[in-house]
Fold these 2 entries.
Entry 1:
Amino acid sequence: MPRQAKTLTAQKDERTKTGVPGLDEILFGGIPRNNLVVISGDPGSGKTSLCLEFLYRGAMEYDEPGVYVSLEEPEEEVVKMAETFGWDIASLIEEGKLIVITVELYDFDKLKSTIEDVVARIHAKRLVIDPGVIFRLYFERELDARKRILSLARMLKKIGCTAIITNEIALDKTTSLFGLEEYVADGVILLYHTKLEDRFVRSIGVLKMRGTKISEKLHPITITKEGIKILAKHELFEDVK
Ligand SMILES: Nc1ncnc2c1ncn2[C@@H]1O[C@H](COP(=O)(O)OP(=O)(O)OP(=O)(O)O)[C@@H](O)[C@H]1O
Ligand SMILES: [Mg+2]
């Protein structure tokens, strides 16, 4: 293989393409492989939809198996939600390209070993934990939460997954209680669902992403029956006075 082609291949492999329309564009090619990304956002801003689409597109378009760890919803609910977008998640599960698993977070070490097991079972390359906010409620002391999150992040890197953890916060009011986003994650994506005059608008912004250039702007989002779409060429408020 000519030297230049080899370099290009290597570069291509360094990214996990989310496959979510518009998202790879504002990340200048995708999430750097094995990054741990936190998606923080308002209620109903599209966190779960984006995570499901990340796994669905990964399995369908990039031949990358994925694992969805739900800390709240039963598996059937997660599958049902994906089906409202027309994504046949049930078939992917049958084919061993996706695992949806609900884990009770009463034992953190058990959560870690469960994740290791299911990731190994289908050689998953993508992992989602939704909603990750539970961590904060589970550990009384901030230091405990931080230590556990760090050890989880280390483990995820070791097993070779690009991971997304969701975080439920009202973006205009507060930041995360234990600073998970700022200190542990490689990337932070913010999803806004905010009132603008007489309507609600959805938007996305990348606060940080180690290892890649990012768009510095807020971009509008639409959620339709086909999934999430990021209008990467548009800036939020560009048409609004
Ligand atoms: N099939 C669909 N077509 C159009 N819009 C949809 C569809 N499914 C969901 N939505 C919209 O997407 C919104 C975001 O849903 P989602 O559950 O992904 O948000 P979330 O940020 O995970 O919410 P939560 O804070 O409850 O966890 C829903 O409130 C709904 O309005
Ligand atoms: Mg959700």
Entry 2:
Amino acid sequence: MAGYSRQSINQESEFLENAWYVAAQSHELSGQLASYRILGDDILLYRDSNDLPVALEDACPHRKLPLSMGTLIDDVVHCGYHGLQFDGSGKCVGAPTQCKIPSNAWVRSYPVVERYRLIWIWMGDPELADAADILPVADYDDPDWGLTDGGVLECSCHYLYLLDNLLDPSHVAWVHQSSFASAGTVDVPLELQETAQGVLVSRWIKDIDPPPYYADMLPFSGKVDRLQYYEAVAPSIAVNMSTYTRAGLGGNDVELPADTYRMRSYHLITPVDENTTRYHWFQHYNCNTDDEVIREQLNEGARGAFEEDRLVLEAVHRGMGDKRSPNLDLQLDIGSRLFRRKLSAMIKAEKALP
Ligand code: FES
Ligand SMILES: [Fe+2]
């Protein structure tokens, strides 16, 4: 029936399939059929009558018409061509043109979980899907922390260029001059750490003026110590933590003061295919959390900055895809090089599974 078959997916893809990816924002899903392309596969998403998200292969097994072109009636998807009917598990429950339901009429279903205002989908072997493996968002239920609405950007670039960028604290000095740039973002040495599922690049920058994006947000004025913390978790999530103290109070081996400002930016990167990426993001922060103006300011400031990234990374994708001469790596690429090596080993190991 709706079992998982490795033959049913593209064996040549460079994607890790046994992983949770963000398919959509919660508010996008309804009782209407909608199609999303994820890791090169077309996925049908909708909510059933219990408001639970459902994900099916978006292709009827008869002539591969996208099921998203059909209709949803009482939790059953009716194909828009000859009426084959499928329930939320992918089982065929009706075949109006046949005297009985063909035994090979089924569509693949995908595990889905709704968490953190997002719909997460498992693209690999359903037997391996465990909701406990979804990235934990620390303090998510703590009412003392604020959440931005976040957003989504469609980027015409390979997803690993986004991951490279999210492991590169130096680009802010050029790409985000009016928001995240500050003294030290060019030349303070980076620390690299390998984590269980990825890579962390970080550095404390001491005794500087805060960058424009944060200047109005901090609970203190004057010079600051700033931590840039860029972590990537395989296959394609990045968490950037921005930490600010008054100058002289920050550092790796000290206890940070109570008025330390913390902003955690979650970047949830979903490959659409080799040339396109859907980029979901939101932020979580510990100061001025009841202030709607600040919440909006944070959200729109981030959106503007990520648009700056998008423009650069789309051009990088084009440039790297059409090289007329060799490219080189710089010292600032230490994080992305290690991350790409790790992820590539994970993908190879997954492909080697029986
Ligand atoms: S294409 Fe769906 S029933 Fe024919
Ligand atoms: Fe950026």
